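Appendix B. One record, verbatim.
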Amino acid sequence: MQDRSFLILGDGCRLAYRFDGPADAPVLLLANSLGTDLGMWDAQMPALCQRFQVLRYDSRGHGASAAPPGAYSMDRLGCDVLELLGALGLDKVDFCGLSKGGMVGQWLGWRAPDRLRRLVLANTAAFMGPPANWQKRIDGVLRDGMGPLAEASLARWFTPDFIAAGSPALAAIRSMLMANDPVGYAGCCAAIRDMDQRRLLPLIDLPTLVIGGSHDPATPPADARFLVDHLPRGRLVELPAAHLSNVEQPAGFTAALLDFLG
């Protein structure tokens, strides 16, 4: 974990982050999904670093960041980003988040739009109910650890063909899942359990790209279309992938991202 720097947030939580790319380029902030760390973006980095200074961070409860006990909230996860930007002296960034990272992006879009230039919401939703399903997941991971959950997650995050091909990326994602502290994972599950941003989408008056996966069972195409239909300045790109579309279709994802960011 020597490639990370660390910030102590106002509530005492340690947040891990890193920069890549030229220091004089505009900053693009990438936010990871539930169960992964900043390494989930590795396939995008060579292309993105040609045009951006890329800032990645491990969400609270994930990677090298701390995993405080208890339920987190989307407000808390969003404020983590604002504290990070403030500590680094960054007034405005482009933002791309996938799944949970995209939920944080929605929060930033209506709560702190002055901090964003453009917004990319990938494989995400404004609401992921019912809450009882998330509570069941929380109870399970705190009881049984990450093992059973990791294998079930991989089956939902990738298409059967991608899994059968045995990509090295699959092993990397499995390692990220298994490395999670169940307490931190459960804390973030609670943030998703309690989140409903559907009525707030019209407040996000920013250029916004929504990336969906045509085979995504976690945040299916209907969720992506709902976002676009309710965002004032949203546009949609759908990739032939399941949930982690940036890992399963790295070239298509990166091309869509760079095309949008101009």
